[in-house]
## 1
Amino acid sequence: MDVFEEMGELTRRGQAFALATVVWRQPPSSSQPGSRAIITADGELRGWIGGACAEPVVIREAQRVIAEGTARLLLLGTPDQFGGAVPDGMTVIPISCQSEGALEIYIEPVVPLPHLVVVGGSPMARTLASLAGALGWRTDLVDGPDFTTDRADERSMIVVATQGHDDEDVLNRAVAAHPAYLGLVGSRRRGATVLGYLADRGVPQRELDRVRVPAGLDLGKTTHEEIAVAILAELVQLRAAGALPGSGTAAGAAAGAVAGAVAGPGRREPADRPPEAVDPVCGMTVATASSRPFRYDGADYYFCCAGCRQAFEQNPDAYTRKETRC
């Protein structure tokens, strides 16, 4: 139940994460079917899915799942345990040099809900908030004087609909939140006046260029209900096109939440992922931060468990010939 409570808290905070569930085990693995763990974008694991052999592999694969937004089914063991019985779509990853146990783990991305902040108390603002809520978005309706920068972050979408009531002050605070989307409800003439006022007071032009005025798709002369629809339509369109951080498909949402560098076609790796090395004995990938290195012939080697370390210490030359040094 702690895992589910943690999932709820991360979801409320709008953070992307992955849920790993053990769906099968082969003894003597320490895990059990139904064991679950949450893995955050920065590689923190909360819960239980197995011991020291499985954990770093699951963290690494979960970070990839978050970055790509695509679920993955892993079979953790040794390839000769399964032979040709591995189904298509399942990834076999070698683990455990001491135990003959194995695990099947399903890792799925959990994408944060879109967050819309509507600032203003007009009928249009209330309609927009209601429509976004009907889509299941996390929506806040805030009066202009009550809006502060901590009501939004870089994943949020902000629509300023104060419509002449301290537009300049509210928009200035909204710009400071650096949201994924910032729109001002009003005519182009009014928008030019507001943006010019802020530019004269030192707001960087690159920030002002991000403000959409008027917010929403251009539908011509419309009612306030139709203006709300036009704004929501623009937000949906931008998200579906992946034009907003944390938007569009699950992959787009997760990639927006995980800053990273491109590691190949269609793949992003978290920039702050801890350094890893390959265990020269069993071939398992281990996090260097959780393994004490063994220095040999001018290079550091890392191991998933004491058994691999002992085997290496007894005959390092047998393994260094086939191992890529870290």
## 2
Amino acid sequence: MDEGAAGQRTPRAATRAILNELQQLVTEQRNPRTRDIDLADPETILQWINDEDRLVPDVVRGQIPCIARAVALAERSLRGGGRLVYLGAGTSGRLGVLDASECPPTFGSSPEQVVGIIAGGAEALLRAQERAEDREADAVGALEALGLERRDTLVGITASRRTPYVVAGLRHARRVGAATVFITCNTPPADVEADVVIAAVVGPEVLAGSTRMKSGTAQKLILNMLSTATMIRLGKVYENLMVDLRPTSQKLEERSKGILMQLLDVPYERAVTLLEASQGSVKLALFMGLAHCSAAEGEARLTSAGGVLRRALRKEAP
């Protein structure tokens, strides 16, 4: 019997319910185009994988209106002193942590502004912690430890749509009043509530259930779009150049000088002088060069323009 005396589900019934749910997921279905992949030669295997990967960008493109709404929430949070928080398990969690970790060197953002949380903690980045995705209390605990609040935006990432860790994190975020975004590669369930739902349904994987493939690619594209568009809106970019990057390596130091030389049409030595005067801030150095002003005046005008360089250039000096 699968039902207890009081109508409660037995452990067997509960696990069978999970299997039934999994069997309904697109990401768990068998791909009819790759059923003979185990008989294929290496080149054919790679061609079939590439054929499937090529389907992903068009699916993501169809979600642009939803991604744009997520960008608006993230921008509002970051402008209001809040954070953009990614939450996921397994591949989804690693992609969130990766995107968060790349924001400071790329855009000069504080490491506290974009945060990645993965089920199982830091160890899960290097070694799979498969059971961690089932521990709902861990998600709540991690978000409580972070101090998630109303001015934050939480992005829950799960290919399957059902990951308990992520679903519990979204519920907690809604309880505290934070904005919520749900990224999935399946049709979202009716019982998962979020301010924005991004459903990139890329179809069955090359290998059934291997969501590190097309689903992971879709999630990577979406997270890149979300963080990059948000940072552009926050003024981290001038034209299509990253002007808030942190020169934390020799490569980035030289890239910073190259940006100034290109945009200001000045020699190397002048770029060095401007960067020294701006204490390494490429954006401030660029503004000083374009507006022919001091560092103090440049800082004031950029601040009044919300950090957006083009907006600051259109305004009169304070």
## 3
Amino acid sequence: MNIAIVGLGSIGTTLVRKFAQGGIPGAKLCAVVVRNRDKAWAVLKDIGVDVPLLELSQLAEVADLVVECAPAEMLPEIARPVLGAGKKIMVLSCGALLDHPELIDLAEQTGGQIIIPTGALIGLDAVSAAAEGKIDSVRMITRKPIEGLLGAPYLNENGIDIEGITEPMRVFQGTARQAAKGFPANLNVAVALSLAGIGPDKTVLEIWADPTARRNTHKIVVESDAASFEMSIENIPSENPKTGRITALSVIAAIRKLTAPLRVGT
């Protein structure tokens, strides 16, 4: 399977390093797409990887799977040519899918596929299974260090200043759809949860800015006719404080599932 990566931020760079260290059986890194080519060449040279830097329009020709590690606003531009060619795309900016449902329609028309990795959450398999029955409610509470929320549009638009707080502060309460708009770089996990379960308008979310926190914490409570369960995870932030280290590892695990002779989990 030929893999192309769009974006060389924290997650994209981790993926490239994985391929440099021996990669994933059955998968080969075939291309990278970035906006800053000079910076990308330096990163690839430092890692010791020699792959071509291509344009978005070229990806469908060379890749079986494209991994999107780019800003959310770029998702339609990245996904359309890939899905239009009937290929697969692994989407990390899944919040953008709520504004572009036509991408799902395109995948259905062409036989392409949009894959959302588990990312920074735990238990999406259980939520997906419960959704085959009847889920009554899904509630998620997220706590993040201050630096992990700075610059979020919702905070700026509502005049919420968190830089000087000394105690945990709830900065948002609403639906996963609202969170995706207000925190596009922070809450893709909530969208993934909602798509696995009862949808972005019924999944309820609280976001707390916590000056005492050192990890991104997510607690999920699900009530369904098959099971009631709670899950919590504390993710260590990556070089990008808005993203946990486990997100990149989740992408690697998802790619491994696509090529492995034994697949564990839904």
